[in-house]
Amino acid sequence: MAELVAPPAGWWAGRLGEPRTAVLGSVDGRGRPHAAAVWYLWRDGEAHIVTGRGSQKHRNLARNGRATLTWLDDWRYLTAEGQVAIEPLRFEDRFALWAHYRGEAVAREETAKGGHEGMVLVRLRPARWWGQW
Q1: Secondary element (H or E) of residue 109
Q2: Which keywords does the record carry (predicted)?
Q3: pLDDT band at 4, cuts 50/70/90?
Q4: Which residue has the higher pLDDT, 82 or 7?
Q5: Of 1, 25, 77, 115, whose Cβ has the fewest other Cβ atoms within 10 Å?
Q6: Tell me, what's the pLDDT at 41?
Q7: Are 65 and 27 in contact (CB under 8 A)?
Q8: Which is nearest to 127 in space by CA: 2, 40, 6?
Q9: Average pLDDT, whole number, for the chain?
Q10: Cross-strand partners of 52
């Protein structure tokens, strides 16, 4: 296992921006771990994650202010840990996430249904990294 204080170079650096499912880790109000698969966008050194307002993820992150995000690729893994900021979700951010994973046609269809008003944008800024690569 290697530990870094900056984003990884080389093999992982090019993969953070790819449409991959990652695992978001948080801690609930009783101190128990909570993990959930999420889609994300990698922007300006942050992972942007969308979740429902009031969801378990949202409540955990609002209470604790920290999270981990883990990417898996065959035998390799990379985990980032850091502080989170939570803000209202804009339509444009939801559209960008859908387009990144499923293409613009599906993004138009999904976002036309509305619903972003009941969601939040979580921005995870990694302070520490570790993994196997």
Answers
A1: helix 104-112
A2: Oxidoreductase
A3: low
A4: 82
A5: 1
A6: 97
A7: no
A8: 6
A9: 92
A10: 119
Radius of gyration (C-alpha) of the chain in whole angstroms: 15
Q: What residue spans define the domains of the chain?
A: 20-132
Specify whether domain 20-132 bears CATH 3.40.50.620: no
Structure tokens belonging to residue 41: 């966008």
Cα→Cα distances 35→44, 47, 91, 105, 131, Å:
24, 16, 26, 30, 17
- Per residue in 47-66, pLDDT tens? 999 999 999 999 999 999 99
The strand ranges marked E within the chain are 2-4, 22-27, 33-38, 40-43, 46-52, 66-73, 76-88, 119-132
Q: CB–CB of 120/84 below 8 Å? A: no
Is the separation of the CB atoms in 16 and 46 below 8 Å?
no
| C-beta separation of 44 from 7 below 8 A | no
Distance CA 24, CA 14 (A): 20
Token pair for residue 50? 């969308």
